[in-house]
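Researcher: Re-running this chain for the archive, since the previous output was lost when a drive failed. Same request as before.
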Amino acid sequence: MLNWLRRRSQPRWTRRTTWTPLLLNQRQLQRVLAKERQRADRERAVFGMVILRVVDLQRVRSSTIQLARILHRRLRETDEKGHLNYGRIGVVLPNTDEEGTQFVLDDILRLAAKARLGIQGEAFVYPERPSRPHYPDESNPAGVLPEKVRDKSGVAGGNGARLGPIAMSLIVQPYPAWKRALDFAGASVGLLMAAPIIALFALIIRLTSPGPAIFAQERVGYLGQRFKIYKLRSMVVNAEQLKADLIECNERDGPAFKMLRDPRITRCGRLLRATGLDELPQLFNVLRGDMSLVGPRPLPVDEAEQCEPWQKARLDTKPGLTCYWQIAKSRHMSFAEWMRLDMRYARAKNFLLDAQLILKTFTAVISGRVGH
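Model: Regenerated structure tokens:
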């Protein structure tokens, strides 16, 4: 009782307190990630990211406080730390490569174990690098991972740190609910209306050209995830094999391949491409959630892999049936200008903009200005 009275009689600033380092909230951490990503793309730099998770959810508050103190002592002044969601903390490490990011994660987990905290962690790096394979050799005939990079205490990253789609989703804003609702409603109505047209042209394709009526190809979509896109086939069956012989005739700069008079296009295919009707089966992709009604056109895998790091920001939103490029495109537009239009949409997308682009697409189809 006497000690309590003594403490109460002391000025507030002289009392012994337990200081806890501040953590950014989820929105603030997302802003930090977005800025760091822009800097990395602009300067061709890298940055690391560590994601930490409290194992015992009944002790999240106390464990988070202790972990915040560890991070404050361990991290540099330029590093940022904040909440991802309940029981998960993210750490952004500017100018840190795979080895450095993994070292920071191992050190944090060592300090957490010393403090008897149940913490698991993952190490990532941006931009994504290929995982470092471990091959058998004379000193390691079984090809076993070294002890220092082997999975420990739930630590992911045994094949080297890398930033995959799950971590990429932390950088971009969550996919808007209104956009998914618009996509589902629009694709449902669109498929009902387009079913007779798709069936008619599928029959014409089968009668005029050997091979299937529907063409499927792997493309790169939202956050770099791959999916199969569906179209009414407008080219000969072996079009991909013939592309190698026509590569010197490419009329577009950058990785995309375009020819005004492509010999691979069938007679029916020219009509389909001139009207954009070959894209109608992609309404099924929209219904599945692989695509959106409005968004950047998804590139084939080989073309997407050749894009510059700054151009991959277009993957922050789902690919779509139409976007700025489909309406305003020109044979003289460079690949870089095309990518900038896509990123312009990714930054500014909203309900009214989607509605305007859909209406303009209908106008372009009717006037014959939409094509490939």
